[in-house]
Amino acid sequence: MKRIFTTLLLLSVWGAAFAQKEVKEYEKLLNKKVIASTNIDTVAWLYDGNFHLGINQALLHNWQAGGELASFTASSLFYGTLTRYNGRHLWTNNLDMAYGLLYTFSNDFVPRKIDDRIDLTSKYGYRLTDSGNLFFTTLFNARTQFTKAYNYDLTGWDTFSTSRFLSPLYATLAPGIEYRRGEEISIFFSPLASRLTYVDKYYTTKLPEGAFGVAFDKTIRFELGAYLTARYKKQITENIAYQTRLDLYSNYLAKDQELNGIVVKEDNPGNIDVMWDNQLSFKFYKYFSFNIGVLAIYDNDVPYYRFVDDGTGNMIEKREPVKGLGWWQIKQMMSLGFNYKF
After folding, report:
1. Distance between CA atoms of 200 and 185, rounded to whole angstroms?
2. Which segments within 237-317 are labelled E, that is strand?
3. Do 113 and 162 touch, CB atoms closer than 8 A?
4. pLDDT tens readout for residues 185-224
5. Euclidean distance between CA atoms 160 and 156, whole angstroms
């Protein structure tokens, strides 16, 4: 009797362990295969993420061709997704972060920022039908940066910053309709999206038109408009992955901004804010990858000035490797280094 009881106990423990393993394998299968293009009904927490760290270093001595004598660059990228499936209910969270620094001998190795971004999106959706792809969704998005930014073209650039953590902070809250096909495609549209921009007075008192769309000597700007955001990601091959995101926003309340009766900024609902982010990753071996990224932003609240004050009262033309893009903000990055996917 004792042997039978012991045998049954061991079988129960083994069965429970095997069942737990099956659940983990099932969730792993869902995370990697099924949810790529299918909205599942099971109750589960699923996650996906990718962290990349790239490092570049160079050293020259008596180099006849010339160049920076010593330089070091470190850049990092993180893209993470956390999703909660529960029948018709769906809660998705996307966190995109980037940061990079450049150190050069000619600048006494004082770090200069080459990348800085924090972008969080959280969406709660309710599927309109049992097996459809349409959800009634409420979206929250917040964008800011980690550290202070400077204009390195100016004399005494380190005495004043152009932006910093939470200045600006863009926060968007929007109810709308989302078309979603698993983790691969998401298209969200809201005809009534509210956006709040917060900036410290330190920045809004520098110029008569204020900063980042916030009026002179103010800290907050409220906008109400139409908002569309679309995401697409594809595992092209086992080692090649691509993801893209497009955001469009039109402010119904946009109008010319005046100061003492003088128009200091022209604006209207037709000035649509655009953000288009693209990332292509080539993985090789197990923990290494080559990443290419292009981020393009058009925002009427961040105007382009071809000439800037050099800090002494003289107007000088900006030194830029790419000219003719006007108000477009362009960031292009390539990085080779360590990669961890979870």
Report:
1. 37
2. 240-251, 257-259, 262-265, 273-284, 288-298, 307-309, 315-317
3. no
4. 999 999 999 999 999 999 999 888 889 989 889 999 999 9
5. 8
Nearest to 187 by CA among 237, 242, 235, 244: 244
Question: What pLDDT is attached to residue 327?
Answer: 80
Residues in the chain: 342
Please name which of 94, 56, 100 lies closest in space to residue 77, comparing C-alpha atoms: 100
CA–CA dist 178, 39 (Å, integer): 13
CB-CB contact of 101 with 74 (8 Å): yes
Q: pTM (2 decimals)?
A: 0.83
Whether residue 138 contacts residue 163, with contact meaning beta carbons closer than 8 Å, is answered with no
What are the Cα distances from residue 47, in Å, to 117, 127, 246?
A: 21, 20, 22
Q: Are strands 257-259 and 44-59 parallel, antiparallel or unpaired?
A: unpaired
CATH of 42-341, one of 2.40.230, 3.40.50, 1.10.443, 3.20.20: 2.40.230
Would you say 163 and 204 are in contact if contact means Cβ atoms under 8 Å apart? no
The residue type at 156: G
Tokens of 188: 């969200």
Tokens of 190: 């809201």
Query: Quick check: helix, strand or coil at residue 159?
Result: helix
How is the chain split into domains, by residue range? 1-32, 42-341
As a whole number of angstroms, the distance between CA 284 and CA 241 comes to 12
- How far is residue 41's CA from residue 27's CA, in Å, rounded to a whole number? 13
Q: Express each pLDDT in 291-301 by its tens digit.
A: 999 999 999 88
Cα–Cα distance for residue pair 232/242, rounded to 1 Å: 8
Cis peptide before 191 (omega within 30 of 0): no
